[in-house]
Amino acid sequence: MTDVQYKGDSKGDVEIAEVEHEKGLSGGTHGPVDIDDGYTQAEIRSTTRKVDRRLIPVLSLLYCISFIDRTNLSLARAANNQVMNKELDLLGGNNRYGLATLIFFVPYIIFEIPSQLGLRAFGARWWLGTACFLWGVVMMCFGFVTNWQGLVGLRAVLGLFECALFPGATYLISCWYPRRQMATRTTFFYVLSVVVCGLSATLAYGLSKLHGRGGYSGWRWIFIINGIMTMVIAVIGMIFIVDFPDRAKFLKPEEKELIETRIERDRGDAEYDPMTLRKFWSYVCDPKLWVFAYIFCTSGTSTYALSYFLPRILLQMGFKGFKSQILVAPPYAWVPIPAMATAILADKYHQRALAISLNSLQVIIGTCMYSKLGANHIAARYAGVFIAVGGSNANMPLAISWAQTAIRRQSKRGYTSAIVVAFGGISGIIAGTSFIEKEAASGYPTGINITLGMTGGSILCCFGLWVWFKLENRRADRAGKVLEEHPDFRYQT
């Protein structure tokens, strides 16, 4: 392949059921072989589509409700700001709302890696489905909380249960597909949920109109109804989530063999290897994983900032009342365009560093436009929101899928998913602390500057990885250096 795969050529489309001819690992001493060798185009297409239909939609549904639940706090507050502040005494003391926002990420970060061990031990269906059901119960409890301390405590428990889903879902996807399909599948999973999440502001606005029903404030109904929805979706997940390929029951034996054979030829890790302390420390000492985590963190900072503060940013732009909630949705409908375009660039044209850099440039341009740095006209500023939302959300799946293409071993995949997504939690803390409430009237200058600086750093990291991977691949080709403990492995750039 070329330096973005192993050695050889690649061609084909990037539809969800794509079939491509490309070379991969041979697992032996005779050089790379075609990962599709021995299977017809029809067999590959049929099996891939079968996996796509069972795996991607249900994971997207769970992540959609996960994202809605973690960001509903800002929507509930925007819907009944004065009522919620008064009932929970959020304005007394120092930044109680900010504390409630940030505390979610503490257990979310701490329990990322342990959650991956449970995923393998109990199976994806029960582990992810049960976690979703439990945080649904927590969401419903938000509707009955009576003080700000209870709000903070529930947010912490929510983070504990939600930490299982995103790294678990991306790890599961990486175990089902060859590397050349990871960006498009991970992006499709992520984008499908983000687009639906964009409608959450409209839903929250509608639920807030239940104000007074049953003696409950409108903001409480937002949590109660969403909690019930989450528990229903959790049951759907328990029924339809598919497990790892070696445990798959919905495939025929020959289909299961096809999946496992292609993955083994692609990267030589179709079989699960348990995590050990020695492996764990070797993964901790792998510098490229920390670089991927930083890239994910920069995208997450912009994503969380817009998720938590966009209603306030729109208010500051001049959109009043319900418009500041309703106009949150349209930018998220734009996300699939840059996301799928750059995913195709990453998978089909083997330009992963370029794809992430282009999205990062969108974040920089869009942030300058919607802030007070580069635009005064309200339409131009709102257009900047579209560009920033599109770029930041497009980079989230690209960053984690690129990390998954740069490693081998299933234990390392689980660790990588956990550590990269944990830095997504850190990005939530950065967004929550840098977008300071007292700076809202001036356009959050501290948060804007930090977002721009970190995103610029992400572009430099992409360039650094691109150079490093090319040099490492050249050493492997010319000097026989073994990468990722396999002589035929090559990094993708």
TrEMBL record:
Pfam families: MFS_1
Disulfide bond found in the keyword field: no
Topological category with respect to the lipid bilayer: Multi-pass membrane protein
Residues passing through the membrane, by range: 55-76, 96-114, 126-146, 152-176, 188-207, 219-242, 289-309, 329-346, 353-373, 379-403, 415-436, 448-469
Any one cellular-component term (Gene Ontology): membrane
Subcellular location(s) of the protein: Membrane
Keywords: Membrane, Transmembrane, Transmembrane helix, Transport
InterPro entries (alphabetical): MFS, MFS_trans_sf
SUPFAM superfamilies: MFS general substrate transporter
GO molecular function, a single term: transmembrane transporter activity
Parts forming coiled coils: none
Protein name (database record): MFS general substrate transporter
